[in-house]
Design brief:
Layout: H1 8-11, H2 17-40, H3 47-69, H4 75-101, H5 107-123, H6 125-137, H7 139-145, H8 159-170, E1 178-184, E2 192-197, H9 210-217, E3 224-228, E4 236-241, H10 243-266, E5 278-284, E6 288-294, H11 305-311, E7 320-324, E8 329-335, E9 358-364, E10 369-373, E11 383-387, H12 394-407, E12 411-416, E13 432-435, H13 437-461, E14 475-480, H14 483-486, H15 494-510, E15 516-522, H16 533-542, E16 545-547, H17 552-562, H18 580-589, E17 602-607, E18 610-616, H19 627-633, H20 643-664, H21 701-708, E19 714-715, H22 716-723, H23 733-745, E20 749-753, E21 756-759
Parallel strand pairs: 11-15, 11-16, 12-13, 12-14, 14-15
Antiparallel strand pairs: 1-2, 2-4, 3-4, 5-6, 6-8, 7-8, 9-10, 9-18, 16-17, 17-18, 19-21, 20-21
């Protein structure tokens, strides 16, 4: 059979498109008129209209019955066409008869007539039945046209589709089926889709599965997909043959497979750097690879950053970041280049507090805002620690925080032990600025006096916690270069250092409850120098520790003090992009090592024991100051204490400055002060004051442990109870264990039994030269 058996004219309706549209318009007008007559006619007395409507319906029904009883060739298709044409007349006639039989006129009678008329107008059965009838008459010819062609090669059609059809017909495995409706996706790729057609009345053989089709076209089995054709039976099967797409999927999956294999071989294997840690998910982005990992059951996740970078083949460990939930889950991010190399300047909107008291101090390594809490709605004021070498960005971070305080209505009190050189932008733009060692100590004492005043008022009113603005504003003391005042090697007299450290330690007990926070910064801070280091450590874990570029030993010390230990904190380099491999290549070639952009402002942010890498908003220095930060400071009104608090602060500052100068002048804190200090009265004989006196030396947890063991050997749990573990401001159990180990290393205590400790005779120590 040739293609001339079924010509296009044989299946076209006899009406031209224009004639069909005109006839459909006339037919719709007729249905509308009939529907109007059906809605109105039954309520009239025109018997002629009644007879015509009912007679027309009866005649059409009789004709339909006659057609149904006939058994001529093609009677089924003819019956369907006749029924399709009769529905409008029968519907309108029936609605007319029912309305005529029921007295009166109800709404549904009109609605039924309108509904039948609208449906008939939309279907236009008289016009469309011409095409339906013609197509029904040609059903045998159409079925014959679906037989597999037996003609010459030209009958398969031209081009790529014809070639595929010829190839399909020539394959023995395809049998009597043929390939139809071929559609090539792109001219430059062999991928196509088509329909496999069986002979009329037969199903596509089950042997024509993906494997058989792949063999016909010589493509991988994964490149073939089969699916039923919606609305048709098993005689039609849709097929897709896409070798190019299959190859692209393989190429895309190759990096993931290689990454999984690398992780299993070097990380999670028994000989890997983290045995048992599974790679449970991954994501490939344009500039990073993000991995989701999980520790084995009953184990905590620990991923050492440097060994992990080495295992994954990274030359620069700074391009690898690790974050964990402190338990078993973790996210490892590998960057193409350092994500914190460029950051923008801060805006006032960045520094507005959210409902949790946090501001956006900068950016995290993954592009999210780095949040810094100025206070906690549940805990009150906080204790923050900032540590960084010169040029690490510590001063910019400090000034950004102070600007945020002024924008949010927080009272800023600043003390700079370096004679105001560290934070010159803050002078005159905060409530009080103490420049110098004596002035910084007096500022601390005055701030403590305001806290004592607030505590007295709170106790009198029965307040047990701080509520922002009710009645007091949040106040934060920022102390920069604190190591110049309390470090043993700072060269200052011990009574002065003990006084300052004692005030800091004592403030950790009640300051937060009255809305008085403290922010301590220095080039190197050892918590043992800060008076009651256990309380400062505990409170700083509630706040924020900012660990900028420092030496490696300080990094390890602060990490051990402030983190949970699940993430390794590594030192921050001075320049971006200068890896150890670059330094090594420079040493090998004898050339200078390259330099990159400075890392100033980059720091490990430690909050709730969890560290992450961040960078503070950029600040540009001009004429030795930061005009952008000055603009932020001056973008909001200056914030003051209440008049009563301001009076307490000023009076206490004047008195404390006298004490500070006397202690720096060599006074030991007992008896009369030197006349050079400006007064001849003794501190203990002074008028009632809230200024802390320097008479009580600062104590540490080690002293408390030694005192507890003075009565005799004790078990570990008894020592913990004696030093206050479990109380509100007491130390943690782990801190007591660390203190015992340190005392044992120093030879001051010894283990005399299982879990039993006793004091030993301490070795003689040289007297303090101060």
């Amino acid at each position: 059979m040739t293609t001339e058996t079924v010509t296009p004219a044989a299946v076209r309706p006899p009406l031209s498109p224009t004639a069909a549209r005109h006839l459909a318009t006339v037919e719709r007008i007729a249905y509308g008129t009939a529907g109007l007559a059906t809605a109105i006619g039954p309520s009239t007395d025109l018997w002629q209209l009644h007879a015509a409507a009912l007679g027309t319906g009866a005649g059409v029904l009789c004709r339909l019955w006659t057609r149904a009883r006939s058994r001529e060739e093609g009677w089924g298709a003819a019956l369907l066409t006749a029924s399709y044409k009769a529905l409008p007349v029968l519907g309108l006639s029936t609605a007319y008869g029912v309305s005529l039989a029921i007295p009166g006129t109800t709404w549904w009678e009109v609605a039924a007539a309108v509904a039948v008329a609208l449906g008939s107008a939309a279907a236009v059965p008289l016009t469309r039945s011409r095409g339906l009838r013609r197509a029904a008459e040609n059903v045998p010819e159409v079925l014959a046209a679906q037989q597999p062609p037996q003609a010459d090669e030209d009958d398969y059609g031209p081009g790529y589709a014809g070639d595929l059809a010829r190839h399909w017909a020539a394959a023995p495995a395809t049998g009597t089926t043929r390939l139809a409706h071929v559609r090539q996706y792109r001219p430059d790729a062999p991928d196509f889709e088509a329909v496999i057609l069986a002979q009329p009345g037969e199903a596509v053989p089950g042997s024509l599965d993906e494997r058989a089709v792949a063999a016909v076209f010589d493509v991988p089995v994964g490149a073939v997909r089969l699916a039923p054709v919606p609305g048709h039976g098993p005689g039609r099967i849709a097929v897709q043959v896409a070798p190019a797409e299959h190859l692209a999927r393989q190429d895309q999956g190759a990096p993931a497979d290689q990454l999984t294999a690398l992780w299993e071989a070097r990380v999670s294997s028994p000989k890997g750097i983290a045995p048992g840690v599974e790679l449970v998910g991954h994501r490939f982005d344009a500039d990073r690879i993000v991995l989701r990992v999980e520790a084995p059951d009953t184990e905590l996740l620990h991923l050492p950053r440097l060994p992990l970078a080495r295992a994954l083949g990274l030359e620069d460990p700074e391009l690898l970041m690790v974050e964990t939930d402190g338990m078993a889950q973790g996210v490892v991010t590998i960057y193409a280049e350092h994500p914190l190399m460029t950051v923008r300047e801060a805006t006032p909107d960045d520094l507005l507090m959210d409902s949790s008291g946090r501001i956006a101090i900068g950016l995290r390594h993954d592009g999210r805002p780095a949040r810094w809490p100025l206070y906690d709605p549940e805990l009150g004021a906080l204790t923050d620690l900032l540590v960084g070498a010169p040029g690490s960005g510590k001063s910019v971070t400090f000034l950004t925080l102070i600007a945020a305080e002024r924008i949010n209505g927080v009272v800023s009190v600043v003390a700079d032990a370096q004679d105001g050189m560290s934070l010159p932008e803050a002078e005159g733009r905060v409530f009080h600025f103490g420049a110098g060692q004596a002035e910084a100590a007096a500022t601390l004492a005055a701030f403590s006096a305001v806290a004592s005043y607030r505590q007295e008022v709170s106790a009198a009113n029965g307040w047990g916690s701080f509520v922002l603005g009710k009645p007091w504003r949040l106040a934060i003391l920022s102390m920069d270069e604190i190591n110049r005042m309390i470090a043993e090697d700072c060269g200052l007299p011990k009574p002065f250092r003990s006084w300052v450290a004692g005030m800091l330690g004592a403030g950790q007990i009640t300051w937060r409850k009255v809305g008085m926070g403290v922010r301590i910064a220095g080039q190197s801070i050892h918590l043992e120098d800060l008076g009651d280091s256990e309380k400062i450590r505990a409170n700083a874990k509630q706040g924020t520790t900012w660990l900028g570029r420092v030496n490696s030993s300080m990094t390890r010390s602060m990490a051990a003090d402030m983190t949970t230990g699940t993430v390794e904190i590594t030192p921050i380099r001075k320049f971006f992009g200068v890896s150890g491999s670059a330094e090594l290549e420079a040493a090998w070639s004898g050339e200078e090592a390259p330099t990159g952009p400075t890392t100033a402002g980059t720091a490990w942010m430690i909050q709730s024991g969890q560290p992450y890498l961040s960078r503070v908003w950029r600040a540009v220095k001009r004429d030795r100051t930061y005009p952008g930060l000055i603009a932020l400071l001056e973008s909001a009104p200056l914030v003051d204490f209440s008049p009563a608090e301001a009076d307490v602060f000023r009076a206490a500052y004047d008195e404390a400055l006298t004490l500070a100068l006397a202690l720096l002048d060599g006074w030991d804190g007992k008896g009369e002060m030197p006349t050079s200090a400006g007064t001849e009265s003794a501190v203990t004989a002074a008028a009632p004051s809230r200024v802390p006196t320097p008479l009580a030396p600062a104590r540490s947890l080690r002293d408390d442990v030694l005192d507890a063991l003075a009565a005799g050997p004790l078990r570990t749990r008894e020592i913990r109870k004696a030093v206050g573990v479990g109380t509100e401001d007491g130390p943690a159990s782990g801190s007591v264990d660390n203190a015992l180990q340190a005392l044992q290393d120093a030879g001051l205590v010894a283990r005399v039994g299982h879990g039993v400790w006793a004091r030993t005779e301490p070795a003689a120590t040289p007297a303090d030269p101060s």
